[in-house]
């Protein structure tokens, strides 16, 4: 169990029980936001979370997932969950950095050495500190999902060195760190809603974007951007979270059901992600995508020093968290 889940562990009877989440006769719906299509690993984890809650609440609660961003784009949805317009969601920690500075630390390029290292860090004290920052922003973290390693893809040519980004326009998520990252590599960054990327690639509004294999596949971006360069510059977790006020209004027994459901969904999602990432890579390669591995990433990593320096200068109180994440991987 994650550290921040342990901190909320409650003393209750060990026997299984069915708990009513609402006093009225009608089930109370919890609306869950999701940017991905239903067959995506994140979606599978969310559906498992909802299934367990619905089952254990004895029908008093209906947790429902709205897939495909139908309830709005990610920045808007973050605000909706904070304010109570939506009840729960899974958000990438990149955009969450806009409301909780602690979440921005994991958006520093190359801060994680591997996906496994990210799991260890996020399930430990550093993850707890990030969770505390999100709680202050009105979000109650319940678990950390996997979203793999992000790499650059574009319509022009393979990227082997930072010089290959020069003059190219890349879509990035809504976070100034990503704008700085692309600029430090010589490219031009354009924050843009995820749903607009496909058409923008097709029409030449942008030259490329950056994401993991499953998103590159499921979005259809590989149909427009044929060059995928394995930079793995970002390894970003995603946060299964809910509105803090809704969470605080639950009884101890209700909170246990929520945390048990979250634990089960994290286990399922991480396993599903690993399998899907390999399957998506095989699919795009079979479709004729040119994938190039980058054996030596030193030039990319060295170019990020100004990004780190600017971040620490703007957030001196987070220097300890940056060091803790780095030290946890030694």
TrEMBL record:
Q: According to the lineage, what is the superkingdom?
A: Bacteria
For this protein, the record's InterPro entries field holds:
DctP_fam (IPR018389), TRAP_DctP (IPR004682), TRAP_DctP_sf (IPR038404)
Where does the UniProt annotation place the signal sequence? 1-22
Q: Does the keyword tRNA processing apply?
A: no
Q: Name one GO molecular function term.
A: carbohydrate binding
**What keywords is this UniProt entry annotated with?**
Signal
Q: Whose protein is this, by species?
A: Thalassospira alkalitolerans
Protein's UniProt name: C4-dicarboxylate ABC transporter
NCBIfam families found in the cross-reference section: dctP, TRAP_S1
GO cellular component terms attached to this protein's record: outer membrane-bounded periplasmic space
- Which BP terms from GO are recorded? transmembrane transport
The record's annotation in Pfam families points to: DctP
């Amino acid at each position: 169990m994650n550290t921040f889940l342990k901190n909320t562990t409650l003393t209750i009877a060990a026997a299984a029980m069915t708990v009513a989440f609402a006093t009225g006769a009608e089930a109370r719906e919890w609306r869950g936001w999701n940017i991905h299509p239903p067959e995506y690993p994140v979606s599978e984890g969310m559906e498992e979370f909802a299934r367990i809650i619905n089952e254990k609440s004895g029908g008093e609660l209906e947790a429902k997932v709205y897939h495909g961003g139908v309830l709005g784009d990610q920045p808007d949805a973050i605000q909706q969950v904070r304010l109570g317009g939506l009840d729960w969601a899974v958000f990438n920690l990149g955009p969450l950095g806009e409301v909780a500075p602690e979440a921005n630390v994991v958006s520093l390029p190359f801060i994680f050495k591997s996906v496994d290292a990210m799991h260890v860090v996020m399930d430990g004290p550093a993850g707890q500190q990030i969770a505390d920052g999100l709680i202050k922003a009105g979000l109650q973290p319940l678990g950390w999902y996997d979203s793999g390693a992000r790499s650059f893809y574009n319509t022009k040519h393979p990227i082997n060195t930072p010089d290959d980004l020069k003059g190219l326009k890349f879509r990035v998520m809504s976070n100034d760190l990503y704008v700085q990252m692309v600029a430090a590599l010589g490219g031009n960054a354009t924050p843009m809603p995820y749903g607009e990327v496909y058409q923008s690639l097709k029409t030449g509004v942008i030259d490329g974007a950056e994401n993991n294999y499953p998103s590159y596949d499921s979005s259809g971006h590989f149909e427009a951007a044929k060059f995928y360069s394995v930079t793995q510059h970002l390894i970003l977790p995603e946060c299964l979270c809910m509105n803090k006020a809704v969470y605080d209004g639950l009884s101890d027994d209700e909170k246990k059901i929520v945390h048990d459901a979250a634990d089960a969904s994290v286990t399922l999602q991480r396993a599903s992600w690993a399998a899907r990432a390999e399957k998506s890579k095989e699919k795009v390669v079979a479709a004729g995508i040119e994938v190039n591995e980058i054996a030596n990433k030193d030039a990319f990593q060295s170019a990020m020093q100004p990004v780190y320096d600017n971040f620490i200068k703007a957030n001196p109180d987070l220097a300890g968290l940056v060091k803790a994440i780095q030290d946890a991987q030694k």
